[in-house]
Amino acid sequence: MSRIGKKPVELPSGVSASVSGQTVEVKGPKGTRTFTATDDVTIAVEENAVSVTPRGTSKRARQQWGMSRTMVQNLVKGVTEGFKRELEIQGVGYRAAMQGNVLKLNLGYSHEVNFEVPQGITVTAPKPTEIVVEGIDQQQVGQVAANIREWRGPEPYKGKGIRYKGEFIFRKEGKKK
């Protein structure tokens, strides 16, 4: 049995949820988000909470139960607080700067990398070696951060590249004579 799915998702003040069929729509101060659940679960709004219950005892219904509840929880968190991913850049001459809707990255290539920021995502560069990605969609925030990191992932010998803040890079020893 799902322990996560049993707990209803509390709706903070200023957030409203509506269910039509299998689609949940959550409105909050930062925007509106929707999620369509599978037919294995039933979603209901009661007073200030959204509850998810399985339809049957099949393995798939139990799997969808916890996952659907977490998805609804992420919708509520997204429209109230939003999601944030922080990246840090290490390496001599490596830096980032925002210019309008384009993130300009100097990553040791012969050219400057121009990363177009997608709609609904906010990217800031508070320092030349820091990048902050924010938005209301957790999946999109993580994907944009991964796409930025992909340009120059951290290498194991000197640790140069773009990494998530707090990420540990396993360092390797260089050649021995």
Folded structure, characterized:
Part of the 50S ribosomal subunit. The protein has 177 residues and is α+β, with helices and mostly antiparallel strands. It is built from three helices and 13 strands; from the N terminus they run αββββββαββββββαβ. The chain has helices spanning 3-6, 59-80, 138-150, and strands at 9-10, 16-20, 23-28, 31-36, 41-46, 49-54, 83-90, 95-99, 102-106, 113-116, 121-124, 130-135, 161-164. The strands form four sheets. The protein has a four-stranded antiparallel beta sheet, covered by helices on one side. The protein has a three-stranded antiparallel beta sheet with strand order 1-6-5. It has a three-stranded antiparallel beta sheet with strand order 2-3-4, with helices on one face. It is elongated and about 65 Å long. The mean pLDDT is 91.
What is the number of beta strands? 13
Task: Report, as a whole number of angstroms, the end-to-end distance.
Answer: 58 Å
Radius of gyration: 21 Å
Structural class: alpha+beta
Overall shape: it is elongated
- Quaternary arrangement of the chains shown? single chain
Q: Tell me the number of helical segments per DSSP (H or I, 4 or more residues long).
A: 3
What share of the residues does DSSP label as strand, in percent? 35-45%
* H/E element sequence: HEEEEEEHEEEEEEHE
Average pLDDT score: 91
- The helicity comes to 10-25%
Subunit structure: Part of the 50S ribosomal subunit.
InterPro entries: Ribosomal_uL6-like (IPR000702), Ribosomal_uL6-like_a/b-dom_sf (IPR036789), Ribosomal_uL6_a/b-dom (IPR020040), Ribosomal_uL6_bac-type (IPR019906), Ribosomal_uL6_CS (IPR002358)
Protein name: Large ribosomal subunit protein uL6
Pfam families: Ribosomal_L6
